[in-house]
Amino acid sequence: MSKQDKMEPKYDHGLDLLLAHMNIEDIISAAETLYQLEEEEEEEEEEEEEHSLSQERMDENEEGGALLEGSGGGAQDPGGGAGGVRYGTVTELLSFVNLLSSTEMATLQQLNQEMGVLLNQKFMAVKKGRYQVNTDVLLFPWKLTYKSPGCGLIPKGSFGKVHLAQDTSTRKRMACKLIPVENFKAADVEFQARFRHENIAELYGVVLWDQKVHLFMEAGEGGSVLEKLDSCGPMREFEIIWVTKQVLRGLEYLHSHNVIHHDVKPSNMVLMSDKAVLVDFGLTVQMTDDVYHPRDLRGTEMYMSPEVVLCRGHDTKADIYSLGTSIIHMQTGNPPWVTRYPRTAYPSYLYIIHKQAPPLEDIADDCSPAMRSFLGRALERNPVLRSSASELLKDEAVNPPREEQPRCWSLDSALGGDATHPPLRQHSQHQDTTQESSLYSEDSAHGRRKGSLYIDLGALSGYCKLVSGPPTSEYA
Q1: pLDDT tens across 151-181, in order?
Q2: Which of 38, 163, 178, 238 is the most buried (most CB within 10 A)?
Q3: Where is the composition biased (Basic and acidic residues) (predicted)?
Q4: What is the number of domains present in the chain?
Q5: 177: containing domain
Q6: Which one has a higher pLDDT value, 460 or 340?
């Protein structure tokens, strides 16, 4: 053996040679290139198969294609074929959902392929007219992605469950609300699609698959305010100020368009890393007159205004009253009325609201004079005298001097302050308050405030890449 042979290493496999002369990044890049070539070949084969079966699919979905004709707005076929999913405008999406809500179930049941319209091309990747659940987008049960293992309390709405969704191509995390098609109404989508604002959860698209309508929308990394109250207890006033101001901005925008949300409550206020948004527009209406005369009772009873309970007509001021009751819930950990009138003895609060509103006795004992005055304006029984969202946004209670507010991780981030935050592990230094708690507990739980919401908001503000799940199990 020559001296040169002794100096040169021996390689038994080509992989050893690669590892010796290429860094790991080069190897990964090469593997990805090979994977992409194989994937392109597979896609070409699938395309040929789909082409050969296209006529058969059109025959199977003849009735499904027929129902799409004449829908107007350029959305006669949301998928560009028999079924299918495509990108479209708000007008096309609304045309599609109106069609779904008015089509007979027997016709929809014959569709064997997903169909829908997506508004967001950046976050949702359509592949040849397909957007397959659990392939192109993965859905994860809410209980597994957000709720603590020991907590069995999952809020439930009238219809539809919300999952955490993640697009497999863009890696974008979204909230996905599933509504059985027989319970779906165009109103569930209309207002969220038409009205865009920073403090209104953005709608990304609508897909019908497996007899369920999938509503994809902006996900709340911090969960809903109700979930934070359940896990952390009553909120501190500076936290309440932050959330209230965000919600007021959303309400101001809606009310400027004569839109009544009708269901403002903690479970419909969702926390992002640097903002809060309103969700659940299933009960929303747009007034055509100065007063809206309902045909049914709209809202959640503990948060209803006296004029809504009477069903004699109301306007946008009803949302302001509901916000005031929600602030009481944030202060005390309980909705108004339930501490003084336990649910076990009073199955309905409508009569109590009619006779005794507003619930000023339920305001927290440690409420500041400025916030107490704010609540008096928001909970004014006479809606004519009640302050509007624009007026309340100027109130001193939600615009305190910065020096008078405690240094708070979440507010520092939200208001553009000091970006340095304590380590996330500091959360463990506080008392564990994640055990299951009752929404209608008679204890005000002021003592639980030391483990309050600011820890969670602060962690999300400083570590916004951490996403723990969608806003709530049920938006309603």
Answers
A1: 333 333 334 578 889 999 999 999 999 999 8
A2: 163
A3: 395-406
A4: 2
A5: 72-217
A6: 340
- Does 263 qualify as catalytic in the annotation? yes
Residue 249 has pLDDT above 80, yes or no: yes
Q: Are 358 and 210 in contact (CB under 8 A)?
A: no
Please give the structure tokens belonging to residue 463: 């570590």
Residues 257 and 395 placed together within one structural domain of the fold: yes
Both structure tokens of 127: 């592949």
Domain boundary among 185, 201, 217: 217
* 61 occurs within a structural domain: no
Name the active-site residue from 136, 263, 315, 456.
263
Whether the pLDDT of residue 46 is over 80: the answer is no
Tokens coding 152: 């069995």
Q: Rounded distance, CA 287 to CA 278, Å?
A: 19
Residues 377 and 437 in one domain: yes
pTM of the model: 0.69
Residue 17 — pLDDT band, cuts 50, 70, 90?
low
Taking only the tens place, the pLDDT of each residue in 57-97 is 444 444 444 444 434 333 344 333 445 899 999 999 999 99
| Tokens standing for residue 156 | 């439930």
Write the secondary structure of 347-384 as one string of H (helix), E (strand) and C (coil).
Answer: CCCHHHHHHHCCCHHHCCCCCCHHHHHHHHHHCCCCCC
Which residue did the predictor score with more confidence, 41 or 145? Answer: 41
Which tops the pLDDT comparison, 33 or 357?
357
